[in-house]
Specification:
Length: 137
């Protein structure tokens, strides 16, 4: 039976699940992740949309990411939690946030991006490969 990860927003109205291991998982230190999270970085993980199941409603915001690309950011309209994001450059990808995983210890970050924007009070994890700008490809 394929492994599945399950996640939910704070109030439980929005739920997601995804099959198998994430295609990528890491930390983002960009300015937008700082404003969105209230923390210096965001732990994120990505899957192909075909492996993902979504339940519940979201509201969304069309953002221009720090690297200049469009990104559609979805939120729970009830509790405001970040739900998922869809990069304009990769509309077949769904990005989730590690804090929403029901078993959060299963998050295993492999890299850090936008470390040039990292703030002194939340520096990039020194043991991870880090990139000053956008994602490694
Ligand atoms: Zn919610
Ligand atoms: Zn970011």
């Amino acid at each position: 039976m394929p492994d599945r990860l399950f996640g939910a927003c704070l109030c439980g109205q929005f739920r997601w699940s995804a099959e198998g291991a994430p295609d990528f998982q890491g930390f983002c230190h960009c300015d937008h992740c700082r404003r969105l999270s209230g923390c210096g970085h965001t732990p994120f993980l990505g899957f192909a949309a075909t492996k993902v199941h979504l339940e519940g409603r979201t509201s969304s915001y069309s953002d221009t990411a720090q690297n200049g690309g469009g990104i559609q950011r979805h939120f729970c309209p009830t509790c405001g939690s970040r739900a998922y994001a869809v990069p304009g450059s990769a509309p077949e990808v769904r990005i989730f946030y590690a804090g929403s995983i029901g078993a959060p210890d299963r998050f295993a970050p492999g890299f850090a991006i936008h470390t040039a924007s990292a703030v002194a009070w939340d520096p990039a994890e020194p043991l991870l490969p880090s990139f000053p700008g956008a994602a490694p490809d």
